[in-house]
């Protein structure tokens, strides 16, 4: 009871102490209220920034200051008055006469060992310029002389849907408007115009994205043909395939990462993969992490699916599209895939093969890459004999050049030759989406209209299957036009009857032509050639200029419909494996 009595006696003193504390806190609170987010710079901020006695707009989140003077003001001699927290200093100092005529000026506030830089821009009314430009918390670096703005955003941002905010002087307007989402895959042009209509200035805004915490390469050695892991950044998995008899208990991976990233366990450290997956965690420059489950497995391939090229292994193929095609097969058909170097191409090498993808690309030449003089006549004979014996073929890219030698695409004695395959220049800018026609006004047989190669393809906004909408295309067009062979036909050029005539004579299916042409009977776009005469295999021919396996040499362009290319080839492989 005595203790309780003492507590009651102390209550008045406790209330008095709390009241004094509250008064002290309230009395010391800053007069300035900040509505935006100030990140860890409580005592290194600019509380007020005045020009000619008037306060500028301050964004403490982005450390940006903007102010507009009357039209015609002299920007070379602008007096500034700056209010800071106690003990803070600023450079240039408060009371300085500052030259803003060349663009933004950096003001550095320091206090207790912490510094913060503010970017201040002062403009005259009606002066067409962008005073500040930001995307979220990311502030753009403005180069007024060059007319450029550079912004770096985080790795998780959607670069196709970024919403910038900018400030321009009074008396001006700008397009695109501030606060409107834009696709910054390529630089975006912003134009500021004075309301008098006589002056204006354009800026090109480029966005750089910080790299995600990704593994870019996971190998077992420095040799380019050492075992290379299949990296799936979406599934966060890496798979290494080893031949029979390999020791999985001690593998020392050589790992490459996105710029600035680190990984644990470290590269060059031996690990035991014989008991199951080993986890590797990547951390990028933002501190974001990604954990990969890395699996090593023994693969005894059936060798049903083959790819031929000149390099000693898939990883050493020098041409990006050719390499990407081979890697796609290797990654998606590991237990059935075999890579055959052209110099080792023999009938025995194809003994177990049911599908051969005859494809390559090149620049300045149509020869198979990584070969001294291209694929040889003897090697073409091996492929032809394989096909005649019942082997399945997918022929596309520069491989189409050898349709003549194979001899399958002909009506009677007329051989249909390819005359396309642009190689130099590589390509150019094109804003269209290229692809395959979906339906035809004249109608077509079910074998064409409902062909299994089209199953699961994404359709476009109009009547077609888009395959490539990259803004820069290589344009490898190998379309075989029936026009030069009119004497071989009795039916009219580009008519459905001509398509039926060709199909009957060659035991083929003209599946689709290019998206812009409403007729099947114009030539060979995408077609299936069924067994006929000496040729007992099935061959898929794809002449489309839209085919690109890699965007690595397309000036940074992106193809939103790459999955349609993958699905088309999966369908073709499934069809040929079923024969």
What does this structure look like?
The protein has 579 residues and is of the alpha+beta class. It has three domains: 48-209, Immunoglobulin-like (Sandwich); 215-300, Immunoglobulin-like, CATH 2.60.40; 319-577, Rossmann fold (3-Layer(aba) Sandwich). It is 15% helix and 30% strand. The protein is built from seven helices and 39 strands. It has a seven-stranded mixed sheet. The protein has a five-stranded mixed sheet with strand order 3-4-9-8-6, with no helix packed on it. Strands 12-13-17-16-15 form a five-stranded mixed sheet, with no helix packed on it. Strand 23 and strand 24 (289-298) form a beta hairpin. It is flat, with a radius of gyration of 34 Å. The termini are far apart. Residues 1-39 have low confidence and may be disordered. Residues 307-576 form the DUF4960 domain. It comes from Flavobacterium sufflavum.
Provide the CATH architecture of the largest domain.
3-Layer(aba) Sandwich
Q: Mind describing the biggest β-sheet?
A: 7 strands, mixed
User: What global shape is seen?
Assistant: flat
Q: Count the domains.
A: 3
Helix content: 10-25%
Strand order of the largest sheet: 26-25-27-28-39-38-36
Radius of gyration, in Å, reads 34 Å
Structural class: alpha+beta
Number of helices: 7
CATH fold assignment of the largest domain: Rossmann fold
E-strand count: 39
Strand content: 25-35%
Q: What is the distance, rounded to the nearest whole angstrom, between the alpha carbons of the first and last residues?
A: 97 Å
Outline the low-pLDDT stretches: 1-39
Mean pLDDT: 90
So what's the CATH class of the largest domain?
Answer: Alpha Beta
